[in-house]
Amino acid sequence: MPDTTAAPTVYEIDVPMIPTRRGAMVPPLTANMRLHWRAEAHRIRNVRELVANTANDAGIPQCQHLTVQLHYRPGDNRRRDADNLYPTFKAACDALARGPRRDWVGLELVPDDTPEHMTKLAPVIHPGPGDRRLWLTVEVTR
Questions:
Q1: Which GO terms describe its molecular function (predicted)?
Q2: Considering the chain, what is the average pLDDT of its residues?
Q3: Would the pTM count as exceeding 0.70?
Q4: Residue 3 falls within a domain, yes or no?
């Protein structure tokens, strides 16, 4: 009898990093930023739009459940707290789910970003030399 349970499909989506005035590439949002509400809203909207467009280009299908994890390679060995990446992670997950408001950007891959439809694994920091990179792994589980 053939196996009808397909293995989960994993997609890797780059999350664009926005350069600062000095040209350094940093995650768009961190928990330590103290931005004016309008500047913060602008960055959140940028993350949502860029992640939604990148995920759409990757061809991720609509489903009932996703497992998502944010990865960050800063390009050096300095100490960093992975919890600081949660604001970026939240905006990215919002981009994959249906937004509660119609004017919000959301790709609608899953009906909502609640635990019933999306498992959010803790962000991971990959220390060491190399190019700076921020990306999501998205696993279609059902």
A1: magnesium ion binding
A2: 86
A3: yes
A4: no
